Amino acid sequence: MSGDIHERLEELRDRGLFRRLRCVSGPQGPRVLLDGRPVLLLCSNNYLGLADHPRVREAAAEAAMRYGAGSGASRLISGNMTIHRRLEEALAEFKGSEACLLFGSGYLANVGVVSSLAQEGDVVFSDALNHASIVDGCRLSRAETFIYDHCDVGHLEWGLQQAEGRGALIVTDGVFSMDGDKAPLREIVELAHRYDARVMVDEAHGTGCVGPGGRGLVAELELEDDVDVVVGTLGKALGSYGAYVLCGETMANYLVNSARTLIFSTALSPPSVAAALAALELLCEQPRRVEKLQRNGRVLREALSEAGVVVEERDTPIVPLIVGEAQTAVAASDRALERGIFAPAIRPPTVPPGTSRLRLAVMASHTKSELREAAAVLAATVPAAARRAPEPPVSGSDDPARRARVFDGLADAA
Ligand SMILES: Cc1ncc(COP(=O)(O)O)c(C=O)c1O
Questions:
Q1: Same-domain status, 84 and 200
Q2: Is 332 touching ligand 1 by the criterion CB < 6 Å?
Q3: C-alpha distance across the termini of the chain, in Å
């Protein structure tokens, strides 16, 4: 290893940003062995507890026997199999979309779609707290990127005006992955109509979690006909691995011909596809799983509030405990882990500097008593910062400092 890399690692350590891989034994249940120690898992995106459901496991095993373990090639070569088509049809029906296109992962879907829909000379409008894969899609597109302040439609509109007709795409997470809040989609869609831009929504944390029967935020707001592209993942509430894009037929054809991450990457493996199909069937048959997830979110929030921790009222399974500096978040996470609660510190560049946090994620499979136990431990281990109401964001799109950031390249908002 070169000295340079040693230095970079040391610097990360000094700043509290060093990461290491930990190992979970067994499936993503509420209680797992973490590096050999029993802990309560409070950070998995297996929201509906489907990743280890017997029907989902069986479907994956059967698909491996019937179709093999791998798809062997990209979708445009020989990797597109009947089982891919079946899942695409089922997802399109579930979400009421004309077409559906599977991708290898949510990361690949976002990078592929954003870079297909925006090109050199265009402007992409991206929320400041969008997922890293959207940020990277903006980079690959070579379009100019306008990063509007988080959920600030005033700032977005100001940017659209500056773009003078070059605005090609507005892209946003539906449910924000690290904050659990929802994008103001109605207002965004209205602006998109007015300024003639497309809208793309990432429902990675919406599908299975919010909306009627877990159909996501776009369905909750009845905006299916107003959003051009919805991205969803199979690796979170749907308990498998992979991703999908919902859109019109013409758009799907365009993506097949332009999305580099679909064209140049091996198709999803049959067991992953079959597992997602089985999970989707379970979600449709048992919508109460979504209700249980939402109830569990309320249980955790109430228990934390009663214990003196400030949490926002929300109906998503993501509960951020923002503590500030990276080192403080790491120390809080270590203390919680010593007492059996696994909620790792989330630090820059995943979240902006000064907002490091424990990002709690509830699952439908948690019991009430597990969530209350976790709240009691966290109330005793997170620092006082998480017990104060957050400062309101600075707003006002006439602020020159904010103007200066416009079109000056891409901030690391991941
Ligand atoms: C909002 C959001 N989009 C996309 C992704 C990427 O999805 P995947 O893990 O399937 O690559 C994630 C997952 O981490 C996410 O949180």
A1: yes
A2: no
A3: 27
Angle separating helix axes 153-163 and 185-195, nearest 10 degrees: 10
Dump pLDDT digits (tens) for 175-192: 999 999 999 999 999 999
Please indicate, yes or no, whether residues 205 and 353 belong to a single structural domain of this protein. no
Quick one: 39 and 74 in the same domain? no
> One of 141, 177, 272, 356 is an active-site residue; which one?
177
Return the percent helix, strand and coil in the chain, to nearest 5.
45, 15, 40
Which residue's CA is the nearest one to ligand 1's atom 4?
106
Distance from the alpha carbon of residue 350 to the mean position of ligand 1, in angstroms: 12
The C-alpha atoms of residue 283 and residue 236 are separated, in whole angstroms, by: 13
Spatial CA neighbour of 320 closest among 334, 304, 308, 338: 304
Q: How far apart are CA 414 and CA 79, in angstroms?
A: 31
Over the chain, what is the mean pLDDT?
93
**Whether residue 309 sits in one domain with residue 241:** no
Domain presence at residue 39: yes
Rounded Cα distance, 148 and 345, in Å:
26
For atom 10 of ligand 1, which residue has the closest CA? Answer: 106
pTM over 0.85: yes
Predicted local confidence at residue 408, as pLDDT? 36
Partners of 25 in the β-ladder: 33
**How far is residue 70's CA from residue 192's CA, in Å, rounded to a whole number?**
40
Q: What CATH code is carried by the domain that includes residue 356?
A: 3.90.1150.10
- 9 domain residue, yes or no: no
Which of the residues 53, 155, 205, 366 is marked catalytic?
A: 205
The answer, yes or no, to whether any atom of ligand 1 lies below 6 A from the CB of 177, is yes
Here the tokens at position 105 are 């992962």
Mean pLDDT value of segment 35-57: 97
Residue with tokens 């773009």: 163
Contact call for residues 322 and 388 (beta carbons, < 8 A): no
- 236 catalytic, yes or no? yes
Same domain, 174 and 90: yes
280 and 291 inside one domain: no
Distance between CA atoms of 67 and 77, rounded to whole angstroms?
17
**In angstroms, what is the span from residue 108 Cα to ligand 1's centroid?**
9
The CATH number that applies at residue 153 is 3.40.640.10
